[in-house]
């Protein structure tokens, strides 16, 4: 017997966190009975249904995707905006791991492996994400040192793992700064620069764990190799 939310994630329908939301909202049925308690357990012979979908085990698949601007990282959108799934032409039901802001571009992972998704998002695993920010302004040496030591955002101190100035154009007053974080709180990178009254003109995620965006074109995806998946799994703390 295992918890219902874990069973849903294992079957590749969605992440464990999303499964918990579906259970609480009364969207999940086990053997025809609506289940709303998170402590409920099931076994392998039980029929799990979400809406009209009867869940069956799928082959686990893993993708990296270069998200364009003005695309939402959800499986559907009630405002009719494009989602990351609109760019995929596959039979397997997948979903994004975590989120990128509407105006942020770059690397995001999608999968149908709920346990893997849960582990990648778990803060204690400290999975690093690398961002390249185009900033309207130039940090002074003191400000750069302050950024490296951490910025208090919403009463929480956010300390980047690494900060590197990639280039500076004094004529246009523009700088490109690479920043590596592992928490990924809402608008964290943008808020760090807002602390110095600097606007982030463009923000792109270029790295996720051991993966790098490389020359993957905007709006394109790539299925991960067995080796790439194993390296990502190696980052998960036991």
Topology:
Blueprint: E1 2-3, H1 4-10, H2 16-24, E2 28-30, E3 33-35, E4 41-42, E5 48-50, E6 53-54, E7 62-67, E8 95-96, E9 105-111, H3 114-121, E10 129-136, H4 141-149, E11 151-153, E12 156-158, E13 162-169, E14 174-181, H5 188-194, E15 199-208, E16 211-212, E17 221-223, H6 226-234
Parallel strand pairs: 9-15
Antiparallel strand pairs: 1-4, 2-3, 2-5, 5-6, 7-9, 7-17, 8-9, 10-14, 10-15, 11-12, 13-14, 15-16
Helix pairs in contact: 1-2
Description:
The protein is an alpha+beta fold and 238 residues long. It folds into 3 domains: 2-54, Roll (Structural Genomics Hypothetical 15.5 Kd Protein In mrcA-pckA Intergenic Region, Chain A), CATH 3.10.290.10; 62-124 and 211-234, Alpha-Beta Plaits; 128-208, Alpha-L RNA-binding motif (Alpha-Beta Plaits). It is 21% helix and 32% strand. The protein has helices spanning 4-10, 16-24, 114-121, 141-149, 188-194, 226-234, and strands at residues 2-3, 28-30, 33-35, 41-42, 48-50, 53-54, 62-67, 95-96, 105-111, 129-136, 151-153, 156-158, 162-169, 174-181, 199-208, 211-212, 221-223. Strands 7, 8, 9, 10, 13, 14, 15, 16 and 17 form a 9-stranded mixed beta sheet that branches. A hairpin with a 2-residue loop joins strand 15 (199-208) and strand 16. The radius of gyration is 20 Å and the shape is elongated.
């Amino acid at each position: 017997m295992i918890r219902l939310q874990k069973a849903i994630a294992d079957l590749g329908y969605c992440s464990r966190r999303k499964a918990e939301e579906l259970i609480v909202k009364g969207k999940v049925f086990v053997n025809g009975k609506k289940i709303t308690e998170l402590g409920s357990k099931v076994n392998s012979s039980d029929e799990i249904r979400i809406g009209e979908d009867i869940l069956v085990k799928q082959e686990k698949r893993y993708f990296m995707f270069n998200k364009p601007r003005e695309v939402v990282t959800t499986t559907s959108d009630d405002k009719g905006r494009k989602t990351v799934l609109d760019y995929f032409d596959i039979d397997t039901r997948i979903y994004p791991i975590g989120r990128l802001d509407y105006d942020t571009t770059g690397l995001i992972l999608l999968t149908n492996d709920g346990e893997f998704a849960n582990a990648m998002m778990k803060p204690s695993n400290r999975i690093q994400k690398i961002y390249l920010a185009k900033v309207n302004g130039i940090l002074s040496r003191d400000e750069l040192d302050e950024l490296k030591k951490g910025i208090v955002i919403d009463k929480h101190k956010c300390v980047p793992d690494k900060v590197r100035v990639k280039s500076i154009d004094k004529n246009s007053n523009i700088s490109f700064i690479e920043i590596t974080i592992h928490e990924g709180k809402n608008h964290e990178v943008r808020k760090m620069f807002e602390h110095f009254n600097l606007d982030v003109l463009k923000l792109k995620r270029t790295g996720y764990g051991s993966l790098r965006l490389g020359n993957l074109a905007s709006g394109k995806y790539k299925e991960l190799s067995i080796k790439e998946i194993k390296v990502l799994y190696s980052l998960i703390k036991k």
